[in-house]
Design brief:
heterodimer, A: alpha/beta, Rossmann fold, 6-stranded mixed β-sheet, about 30% strand, B: alpha/beta, 11 helices, about 25% helix
Chain lengths: ~250, ~450
C-alpha cells in the first residue's frame, strides 16, 4: 500500500529526514516512535503533501502511484488521511460545510454523485456517534473553541467520514485524558479493516495499549534505527530512549 | 481661436448656471433654497485632492474630470423594471422601488401593506408635498460638510428617494431600493436621499446599486438619515457594478437618544468607490453599528471613510470593516472617531482586517481616535495579512482543492460582517451573493441573487 524508499526531506535548507525506508501493507498497524525532534511529524507532513517541506531524494509510492507531484488534496482523495497533531481552528467555516465539501470532493473523485443534504446529515450523525463527538460541536466552526480532546476526536470523526485507506495519526494521544484516549482509540479500532492500514506516531507506549501495532519503528535523527514487534514499545517504555541513542551513536 | 482654461469646479458651476431653471423647476422651494449656499461652499472647498488628509488615498478630481452627460430632465424609462427585476427572495417580501440615473422611477408601484403614514416617494415630489419636513431636515447635516462633492450634490440634485416613517410605526418588510445607471451616454448622476425615522419607529432599507450598460459613469450620491429617539434603522448597501463606474456615496446619519442604527456596506464589484459615512450620536444611549466588506480585483479601488462623532455621553459605536483584495486592486479604510469632552461613558470599538491575495494588491488603513475625556472605553485594531497557510493546508489535506479551500477561507473571513445582517432571510441571500462573487459566478445585475 505504501512504500517509502530512501526518503530525504528538508525544511529551510535543513535536512530533517535522512533516508527513511518503510513499507506498509493493507491491514497493518505501524507505530513510529522516537524522541522529540527525530522527524516523526515531518514524516507525517511530508506524506500528506505539505509544501513547507522539500523532498530532496527518494520516493513515496502509495497504491502504486508516485506521490511526488501530487497535491495534498489529491493524496487525500486517493485515500491518505493525516490526523493533525495540532488541528487548525478555522473560524467562519462550519463543520457541516467543511465536511460536506470534503466528502463530495472524494465522491466526485470516485465517480460518485454528491450526497443529498439528508443523506449527508445521516452520515454525519452516524459517524459522530462512532467517536462520541458532541453534536453541538458539529454545528460550530471547524475546531473553533474546541478543547484539546475535542479537537482530536474531531480528527477521528473526519477520518470516519472520509474512510481512508491509510491513516496517519500524528501524536493523536497528546493532550488527551484517559477517557478521551479510550474513545479515540476505540474509534480508530472500529474503523480498522483488512483493507486499510494505520501509522500511529507517538511518544509514549500508552496509546499502543489501545491500538495494538503489528510493527514498531524507532525514528532517530531522521532515520528508522530499529524495527520490531509491539514488545519493542514495551522495551522503550522501560528503558527510555537513551538506550537507543547510545546504541546508534556507538 | 482662444482657448479658455477653466477649472473643473468652474466647469460644473457653469453646468449649473446653464441649467438652473430646469434644475429648480423640478424641486420644491426648500431644496432650491439651499443651492446658493452650496454653490459658495463648493467654490470655496472645490473637489478634494489627496492634499487633504481625509482624502489621502483617493484623489477625487479624476472622478469628475470627464465631460459627462447629466440628465437635467428625466428620461422616461422604457422597460418595465418590475419585469426585469423579479425579486425571488423567499420570505423577503420587500417594498421594491427603483431609481434610474438618480431619478425616481415613474412607474414605481408600492405594494399594498405599507403601514399608514409611511411615505416612500420621489424626493422632488416630496420636496413639494412636505415643505415642513424639508424645512426641518433637508441638508441639515450635509450643509456642514468639509467635502466639496457633497455641496456639488446639493447644487445639482434634482431627485432621489424620500422615506418617512412616522412615530411608533414599524415597517416590517425591508424597503428595497434598486438604483440603476442606464444610459447610452457617459453619465453623471447626482442622486439625493432623505430618510426620516421618527420616534420609536423602525425600518430596514436595502440598497442595491447596479449598472445596465458598460459606459463610464460617475455617481455622486448624498443621503441624509435622521433617526429620532428610540428609532431602529438598518441600511444595507450592496454595490455590484462594473469597472468603469466611479461612485461616491456620502451618508449622513443623525441619531437621537436610544436610537439604534446599523449600516452595512458591501462592495462586491466596483470601479472606483469612495464611501463616506458620517454618524453623529446626538442623544444619550444611542448605538451606531457600522460594518462593511469589500471584495476587489483587477484595478478596482475602494475607499471607506467613516467619521463617528460621540457628541454626548453614554453612547456606543462599533465598526468592523473587512477587505479581500486581489490582483492589483487597492483598498483604503480611514476611521475617525471623535469623543467630545462631555461624552463620558462612551464605548467605541473599531476593527479593520484585510487579506491581500497577491503581492500587487495594496491596502491603506488608518484608524484615528480623538478622545477628549478619560471616562471612555475605546479600542481600534487594524491588520493586513495573507490567507492562513495552515488553514489552507488543513482543508486541502481533507481533499478540498486549493481554489475551493481559498474560497471557503475568504468567505469565512467575511463571515462576521455578514452575520451582522439583522434579518435572516436577507442575511442568507447576501451570503449567497458573496459566495457567488468569490466563485466568479456573479455577473452584473442579472446575476444578483437578490433579484433575478
Amino acid at each position: 500500500m505504501l512504500k517509502i524508499k530512501d526518503l530525504h526531506a528538508n525544511i529551510d535548507g535543513k535536512e530533517i529526514l535522512k533516508g527513511i525506508n518503510l513499507e506498509v501493507k493493507p491491514g497493518e498497524i505501524h507505530a513510529i516512535m522516537g524522541p522529540n525532534g527525530s522527524g516523526k511529524s515531518t514524516l507525517a507532513s511530508v506524506l500528506a503533501g505539505s509544501e513547507a517541506f522539500e523532498v530532496t531524494h527518494g520516493e513515496i509510492v502509495f497504491n502504486g502511484q508516485d506521490m511526488e507531484d501530487m497535491a495534498p488534496e489529491e493524496r487525500s482523495r486517493e485515500g491518505l488521511f493525516l490526523s493533525f497533531q495540532y488541528p487548525v481552528e478555522i473560524p467562519g467555516v462550519s463543520m457541516v460545510n467543511f465536511m460536506r465539501t470534503a466528502v463530495n470532493e472524494h465522491r466526485k473523485h470516485q465517480g460518485k454523485e454528491a450526497l443529498s443534504a439528508s443523506d449527508f446529515l445521516r452520515l454525519m450523525r452516524e459517524k459522530k456517534e462512532l467517536v462520541e463527538l458532541d453534536s453541538r460541536l458539529a454545528n460550530r466552526s471547524v475546531n473553533e473553541g474546541f478543547s484539546g480532546g475535542e479537537k482530536k476526536k474531531n480528527e477521528i470523526f473526519q477520518m470516519a467520514m472520509l474512510e481512508p485507506k491509510l491513516s496517519i495519526l500524528d501524536e493523536t494521544d497528546s493532550g488527551l485524558d484517559i477517557d478521551a484516549l479510550r474513545i479515540v482509540a476505540n474509534g480508530v479500532n472500529k474503523l480498522k479493516s483488512p483493507e486499510n492500514a494505520t501509522i500511529v506516531i507517538t511518544h509514549y507506549q500508552r496509546l499502543l495499549d489501545y491500538i495494538v501495532p503489528d510493527y514498531v519503528h524507532i525514528l532517530y535523527k531522521g532515520k528508522i534505527v530499529r524495527t520490531g514487534g509491539k514488545e519493542l514499545a514495551m522495551e522503550l517504555e522501560a528503558k527510555g530512549y537513551d538506550w537507543i541513542k547510545k546504541e546508534v551513536e556507538a | 481661436m482662444d482657448t479658455i482654461t477653466q477649472t473643473l469646479e468652474q466647469a460644473y458651476l457653469s453646468r449649473y448656471n446653464d441649467n438652473a431653471e430646469l434644475i429648480n423647476a423640478s424641486c420644491g422651494a426648500t431644496m432650491n433654497s439651499h443651492r446658493e449656499a452650496a454653490r459658495e461652499k463648493f467654490e470655496a472647498l472645490g473637489i478634494p485632492t489627496k492634499a487633504l488628509e481625509d482624502f489621502l488615498y483617493t484623489d477625487m478630481q479624476p472622478f469628475f474630470n470627464h465631460d459627462y452627460h447629466i440628465d437635467f430632465k428625466r428620461t422616461p424609462e422604457k422597460t418595465d423594471l418590475y419585469q426585469v427585476f423579479k425579486c425571488d427572495v423567499p420570505n423577503l417580501n420587500s417594498h421594491l422601488v427603483f431609481t434610474v440615473n438618480g431619478w425616481f422611477y415613474e412607474k414605481n408601484l408600492l405594494k399594498q401593506g405599507l403601514p399608514e403614514g409611511v411615505i416612500i416617494e420621489s424626493l422632488a415630489e416630496a420636496s413639494k408635498n412636505h415643505p415642513e419636513l424639508f424645512e426641518k431636515y433637508y441638508n441639515q447635516q450635509a450643509k456642514e460638510s468639509e467635502d466639496g462633492t457633497v455641496h456639488l450634490n446639493t447644487l445639482l440634485a434634482q431627485d432621489g428617494l424620500f422615506i418617512y416613517v412616522p412615530k411608533n410605526v414599524v415597517v416590517e418588510q425591508p424597503i428595497q431600493i434598486i438604483n440603476i445607471l442606464n444610459s447610452q451616454d457617459e453619465l453623471m448622476s447626482n442622486q439625493r436621499g432623505l430618510f426620516i425615522i421618527e420616534e420609536n419607529a423602525q425600518a430596514k432599507v436595502l440598497v442595491c446599486d447596479h449598472t445596465e450598460t458598460h459606459n463610464h459613469y460617475v455617481s455622486n450620491h448624498v443621503r441624509e438619515i435622521f433617526a429620532a429617539e428610540s428609532a431602529v434603522f438598518d441600511y444595507y448597501l450592496i454595490e455590484n457594478q462594473h469597472n468603469r463606474v466611479k461612485q461616491i456615496i456620502s451618508t449622513f446619519i443623525d441619531q437621537e437618544a436610544k436610537s439604534n442604527v446599523l449600516g452595512n456596506i458591501i462592495t462586491l464589484h466596483n470601479g472606483v468607490t469612495r464611501n463616506n459615512s458620517y454618524v453623529k450620536l446626538s442623544g444619550e444611549h444611542a448605538e451606531a453599528h457600522l460594518y462593511g466588506m469589500a471584495l476587489t480585483d483587477k484595478d478596482q479601488h475602494i475607499d471607506n471613510f467613516s467619521f463617528i462623532d460621540h457628541a454626548v455621553k453614554n453612547c456606543t459605536s462599533t465598526e468592523l470593516f473587512k477587505y479581500v483584495l486581489d490582483d492589483n486592486s487597492v483598498g483604503a479604510f480611514r476611521g475617525r472617531i471623535l469623543v467630545r469632552e462631555g461624552a463620558t461613558k462612551t464605548m467605541a470599538y473599531q476593527t479593520n482586517r484585510n487579506i491581500l491575495m497577491t503581492n500587487d494588491a495594496k491596502m491603506y488603513t488608518k484608524p484615528q481616535l480623538e478622545i477628549y475625556n478619560d471616562d471612555v472605553k475605546c479600542s481600534h485594531g487594524a491588520t493586513t495579512g495573507q490567507i492562513d497557510e495552515d488553514a489552507l493546508f488543513y482543508l486541502r489535506a481533507r481533499g478540498i482543492s486549493e481554489s475551493e479551500a481559498r474560497i471557503l477561507l475568504m468567505f469565512a473571513f467575511c463571515d462576521d460582517v455578514l452575520e451582522n445582517i439583522r434579518l435572516e432571510s436577507l442575511r442568507e441571500r447576501i451570503k449567497e451573493l458573496v459566495e457567488k462573487r468569490f466563485r466568479g459566478e456573479l455577473s452584473k445585475c442579472a446575476g444578483c441573487a437578490i433579484c433575478n
